[in-house]
Amino acid sequence: MKRRLIVLFAAAALPAATVLVPMAANAVAPTAAACAAVPVSAPTGTKVVKVTAVANAGGTVTFPSNPPLPDYPPITAVPAWCDITVTVTHPGAQDTVAIKVSLPRDKKQWNGRFQATGGSAYLAGELLHPLVVGVKGGYATAATDAGVGADPLDPSPWAGNAALVQNFASRSLHDLAVVGRSVTKNFYQRAASYAYWNGCSTGGRQGYAEAQNHPVDFDGILAKAPAIDWARFAVGTAWSQAVFNERKVKPGPCELEAFNTAAVKACDTLDGVADGIIDNPQDCHWDARKLSGTSVVCDGRTVTVTRALADAVNEIWAGPKGYPGPNKGVTFAFLATPGTPFFVADAWVKFFVAKNPAYDLSKINYKSFHQLYASSQKQYDSVIGTNDADLSKFARAGGKLITWHGQSDQLIPTQATVRYRERVNAALGGNRKVDDFYRLFLVPGADHCGATGPTVTDDDALAALIKWVEHGQAPSTLPAAGLSPTGVTVDHPVCSYPKVARWTGHGPTTSAANYRCVRA
């Protein structure tokens, strides 16, 4: 399960401060169709070491197994494409960073757009599958490894290297934007008409980092389930370990899920539809203490729910001060398993905050949690916090940002994204003004990055972003479809925050045509 959820994780002008790396004197000048090295521009402070090119025939593309990443199914009808890999370094950093750009060989199969893709957990970017997906969609598509390798679970080899941490946090994202667009321009002999970012989880955080730090890099940013406010997120998601220890409870998964089952039963129909989904968990005020003293059958044995456990569940749902807990109805398997901290938090504390690989995060109490929480913010908020609410430069540059986040996200609490959006509203004049450039969609029933539940597809989200960027048509809804927890295929609109979709009372509840957007 962990492998599956890792992933679940005007002309674009180059900035004036760039360095042009000339081709070797004996190199043949490339044509648009030739798969060969091209001249590359990079930001000041970034040095291009080499440029290589590999031609790919296209057709059906299969992908090797690459644990812990998921196994991807083959992709058919991929056009012939060229992979151009640019190796860069940052003088004094002693780093080696790969930026890979995959481009359709035939100009007629290029849609004129550049797309940069993001990473997951501790992976800055994946250099194969997302690029092939982008090529099939007609994009010149790029990703970077930020010099930190290809393991999304184990950051220990680079956690102590400040230069690599800076790469992972933000520097390599700007490099990716500038280098990727430069390669695209010189390969096709014309600049991409528009540049887009597309990422989920860590990739969502990266999209926000670009909007905050380099507001002219991308015309449009699709940032899904973003791991923003990282310094709090990467410790705050270990809150349950302190709660379990302080409350002296060690429930099994069956006992814990009994609370979510009860919450769904109590709050499912608040939206007028019985589908096994709490549409807006913030409207669900069910108290875990209502389960105190009741019996739950787990693995053939009867367990009586204690008041201490109910209090612990309420605390976990509430989250620590300054960071939200998971929504009611969302599985506790990842953020609240006694003795097994969330893997992102565990690695963050060991290798970045405590700097002690032997640190046992499962043993923390309230005091040690708050010490770690404060230390993480003190050390890393300015490095990788990605929580600056002033997006005015991005707005003035004409950028558009779309975020969708599943209300059943089991890895990144949905309310963290809502709280950020509210801070942007406060900083920039309210919801209506912010809607001019930034729209948030909360997807009922969708889990992290939409692995399960009624979700929004990338094709639909990108199409909405392109309409907004290129034609000025802001999306009021995104389409979501998929299986509900009750096993029924549902199709419904997801409304731009703060509105929610409500059934009109007429026609099937599984059809999008029978919903309208109302203020929550």
From TrEMBL:
Belongs to the tannase family. Keywords: Calcium, Disulfide bond, Hydrolase, Metal-binding, Serine esterase, Signal. The keyword Manganese does not apply. It holds the Pfam family Tannase. InterPro entries: AB_hydrolase_fold, Tannase/feruloyl_esterase. It comes from Paractinoplanes aksuensis. GO terms for molecular function: hydrolase activity. It comes from the Bacteria. This is Tannase/feruloyl esterase family alpha/beta hydrolase. Residues 1-27 form the signal peptide.
